[in-house]
Amino acid sequence: MNSRYTGLVVRFVLAGVLLLAGWQMLAHGSTTEAQRARESADLIADYRPTCDGKTMGRRDTCLVFGGSGDEGGSYQHMMDKYAAANSPEALAERDRNWRVAGTVALGLGGLTLLFFILSLIEAIRFGTGQPQEATISYQRRIVGLFVAVGMAVGGVALIMEVGNFGTWLLAIAGVLFTAGAVAGLVSAWRTRIGRPRWARKHGYTYEHFNKDLMERLGWSNVRPFAGGVVTGTYRDRAFLVFDYAEKDSRDTALVIGLPGEVPPLVVEAKEKPGARLLTGTAQHWANHATQVVAAADRHYPWAFKASGKTIWAKYDEFISPSGKRLSKRLDGLHRVGTDLVALPPS
Questions:
Q1: Rounded Cα–Cα distance for residues 212 and 210 (Å)
Q2: Residue 72 to residue 109: CA distance in whole angstroms
């Protein structure tokens, strides 16, 4: 069976099991004070202590060797122990535990159902043959947001109860993780929603994923797919924008053509304390290092590479770029590429 079909079935079944179990737990733990009092009285009235499988009499004593030493005792001692374990207060505590477990199960079931719906929408929109990690996923970020918010809320609640260093650390970590999860959701929105809108606005072509692009570009050490792919022409030059994964990181690449050929060149990002690093395989760049750095500082202060008739860069900031930022960086690459090609021969 197709792995995406399998994932859909597993999510649907798991969501159903969790929601049903959570509902039953909540129902089991939602008793009134009067119901608990009646249940406690009935349980105690029907109870008769047993010892070694035999019902005890009122004058009997059960002797137990080994264990914790609290398993046996007189008839009255065992009755009192059972009555305490099944008192209205003990039953109320049991009900609270059932309600907590039910709420957790319902929450997990609802989250799993949400994942199922999101995956189903993706399968309907893009088919079941695409890699599930082709573009930034909402699902992992929603899970992270729930966990982070839970940490923050739990930490604040524990601060009010205990107030020690560990509870403060938990609350602060929860707040920081929540901020990171929100930033991740913003990135997902910009890629999954904002990028297609940006492409449509400018008349570019958008693909949710492309499994052959990385191979055609000859990019090695990256996963064999590209997601959120935009192709088009920017000021008379063909360009590509796409997401790709390299080891554990995900970045956005911008590739644009040059009006002429250039030798391989790497320019590092501009750093405030020092000069930009420039590396190349041709004497041409050494002869024009000052002009290259000046052009880069003027048009593109981030890192970029150039070779042949192509110049490209990686957008590796924490939050995925908006359409406005993509346009700005494409314009910068266009301008710096023009200056590089215009340099006189060495």
A1: 6
A2: 43
Return the closest-CA partner of residue 321 out of 266, 268, 243.
243
**Collapsed DSSP state (helix, strand, coil) of residue 70:** coil
| Tens digit of each residue's pLDDT (9 = 90 or more) over 45-75 | 888 888 877 888 887 777 776 555 556 778 8
pTM value is: 0.63
Check pLDDT > 60 for residue 155: yes
How many other CB atoms are found less than 10 A from the CB of residue 300? 24
What is the spatial distance between Cα 310 and Cα 307, in angstroms, rounded to a whole number? 6
Residues 253, 131: Cα–Cα separation, whole Å? 19
pLDDT of 288 above 70: yes
Task: Quote helix, strand, coil % in the chain, to nearest 5.
Answer: 55, 20, 25
Q: What angle do CA 214, 219, 221 make, to 5 degrees?
A: 105
What is the rounded CA–CA span in Å between residue 140 and residue 146? 10
Q: What is the 3 state secondary structure string of 14-33?
A: HHHHHHHHHHHHHHHHCCCH
Q: What is the pLDDT of residue 240?
A: 95
Where b means 16+ CB within 10 Å and e means fewer, 259-296 reads eeebeebebeebeeeeebebebeeebbeebeeebbebb
Residues in contact with 202: Cβ distance below 8 Å, sequence separation at least 6, in sequence order: 232, 327
